[in-house]
Amino acid sequence: xxxxxxxxxxxxxxxxxxxxxxxxxxxxxxxxxxxxxxxxxxxxxxxxxxxxxxxxxxxxxxxxxxxxxxxxxxxxxxxxxxxxxxxxxxxxxxxxxxxxxxxxxxxxxxxxxxxxxxxxxxxxxxxxxxxxxxxxxxxxxxxxxxxxx
Length: 149
Prior knowledge:
Elements: E1 10-20, E2 26-31, E3 39-46, H1 53-65, E4 75-84, E5 90-101, H2 114-119, E6 120-126, H3 128-132, E7 138-139, H4 143-147
Parallel strand pairs: 1-5, 3-7
Antiparallel strand pairs: 1-3, 2-3, 2-6, 4-5
């Protein structure tokens, strides 16, 4: 052993939205980075410096889908995990989940960043049955449990 301590991972604070439609379907986003297998996750993203989770949820929902709300409701769950971001940074996540129910719509991607336009390949409304048997990774892995909160 070299005696050197490992560099601690940065805590990545993020808001996630369980965006449901009137048919109880969940909107997920398919990311297809060049260095790993495509995967699906819900709307949301990292909090800006000084931004609380609830404000980040409202902002991310608007930026990623075009849906503008004053509030995303109460926090439903907290999850933490170690992973490597799409930019290649190892982080420990501190993710807070919020539920929003709306009518089915086609997301407006006009507010996406250049990175999002490159990586986001599809939006799709999923039934619980589809999620239970989907052929590509869906994050978080316990998303069906979160829908029951």
